[in-house]
# Entry
Amino acid sequence: MNTARLPPPTSSSPQPSSTASTPFPISHALTSLHWFSPLPSSIFTFTFTFTSKPPRRRFLVLVQGTGNHTTNPTTTTTFTSASTPSNSLNQTLLTLLRQRKTEEAWLTYVQCTELPSPTCLSRLVSQLSYLNTHQALTRAQSIIQRLRNERQLHRLDANSLGLLAVSAAKAGHILYAASLIKSMLRSGYLPHVKAWSAVVSRLAASGDDGPLEALKLFDSVARRMRRFTDDALIVANSRPDTAAYNAVLNACANLGYTERFLHLFEEMPHLGAEPDVLTYNVMIKLCARVERKDLLVFALERILEKGIQLCMTTLHSLVAAYVGLGDLETAEKLVQAMREERKDLCKILRELNSIKPSNNDGYVFDKLLPNSVEPNNSEPPLLPKAYAPDSRIYTTLMKGYMKEGRVTDTVRMLEAMRHQDDSASHPDHVTYTTVVSALVKTGSMDRARQVLAEMTRIGVPANRVTYNILLKGYCQQLQIDKAKELVREMVDDAGIVPDVVSYNTLIDGCILVDDSAGALTYFNEMRARGIAPTKISYTTLMKAFALSGQPKLANKVFEEMLRDPRVKVDLVAWNMLVESYCRLGLVEEAKKTVQRMRENGFYPNVATYGSLANGIALARKPGEALLLWNEVKERCSVKEEEEKSNSSPPPLKPDEGLLDTLADICVRAAFFRKALEIVACMEENGIPPNKTKYTRIYVEMHSRMFTSKHASKARQDRRRERKRAAEAFKFWLGLPNSYYGSEWRLEPVDGDDYA
# Structure
């Protein structure tokens, strides 16, 4: 394979992005990107298609048409900008760009007090994006920012913006890349499929709301293309191909959206995108995501039936699916069959998974995998050749052992891999890191350090992930000094610079030893090194201030998080802010935060209500507990039909901590009717109420309730309802009450106890 570096592109001939670091390969270059802006019927629009070499000046030409004036469609209007530098400076910059002297071109651009020509700007952004370095990406972003500030973003062509989006996505700036594609769509551009699909691919593989954002971006591009159905030339290079569909299908698989997956899968052939082996690998992930283990073998058979060339990635996906579902027995037998060079893997998997579970998504998979409907009518196909397991498959199996705490089996697997004849099965840095993770999980830090030393000895360099796992182990064992020493070793000996995960781990370690000042120091050091904080960084620092009783500082961190465009505030951050107030009993401030949370589209969850309940208990405001219980009770009664409507909050499943705290408050405040409602809710949710604790509270605080012999008639009438609730609560506790006779007394008293 030729690995020679291709020359950098011009603004109109972008190069393909690397496939090594993306889940879905980009197979061909960003050739001519088309851009078009839909306009009212009274405006004539002319479009230019950029081919191999862009012209010096290409504009979107708008000619206003009126009722009594006829415009010649061939007329071209050239716009001249008052802020364009001299022609000599433009020519110098263009010459440098054509000679691929990107650094000198950038220095020339910096000296320009006015904006260069659109051609120069587009070429400069394209070539900076092609370099794929942090410095080049920062420079390209600065050009975009300048153009946005001066409202001149239209000077850039679609190729340059598309290349920048791909480069930003590869660098991990996914939100920025997505914003570029969205900006292009809003401006009337139709980005090339390789540009927008690269962003969709990254979003689909990211955490949090990434898969949902991937689906939204895919839909946005599809809507834009549907507006140009009459012009096939314009949409040809933007139409989704197989790689683009694989990216959005991956988002559906990560979310478990079976119906949407089926819709997109059936749509592929209509747009000329035929499913490939990667499509079925994603389908294997979907089956595992919705726990349809019985269908995994039929996905493999479908690949063989359709004549699609099988690859090791499919077998990796199968082993990972069984490991993820906790079926290590099947995974082990599959790997063993591969070691024995057997071709009848389908037959083996059928025999191991013969039971078909009941599932509401059955009709979806009947269409996706029609061969699963009547599987017994056909003989399982054979693999075209034998596939020996490689280090990735062994490592996946090791992760299954680690997940179940089988450290001995993990270490044995490592030893077995060392003695394999096939070099492809020898342990790599991922294998050793898995062993380190297994040892750290059990607290065996000394053995984990021995594995790290062995990696150095045999020439398998540890990466940043390996060191981060060791850092986490030391922090969890409260050995912060050893964690700091490991960081120094990581930088000085291994030459690895700590990343945001490293700093997040150190910040969390400082919290565990009650060192909020140390947590803040690491946070500031991280930013000083130019490492952008993630939402985990912000919420972890908020946790430090919440635990140290400094809600004002926690609020400052939260406000800074809101202002950071690279971070999306989530429910965890809101809950941490609520927790910081509730830890000091500041119920009103916590309630204001919850209201603000709702205004921003977040519904309180169990953690939110749990913090509020603890704050109410600390502030001794039982009346607030009644209001909170009414809200919790209403959320618990939300039905699935109401959940689907956007106006209704999602249903709530309370946990033991929330209900126990509310019941405790109500028993102490003698709200026995509400206490009975709460314990009934606990029993409905399979949570055993702590009767011993409630009995002790009742005996200590309310045993003499309603024992006054001199209560007036009016007072007796007012407390009759409370007395009835108290008797019912005593009946539930098993204490003597009016529902059955007993001579039990806490101590001898005269007269009627309930006078």
The chain has 37 helices and four strands. Confidence is low (pLDDT under 50) at residues 1-84, 741-755. Residues 39 and 225 are 15 Å apart (CA to CA). The first strand starts at residue 34 and ends at 35.
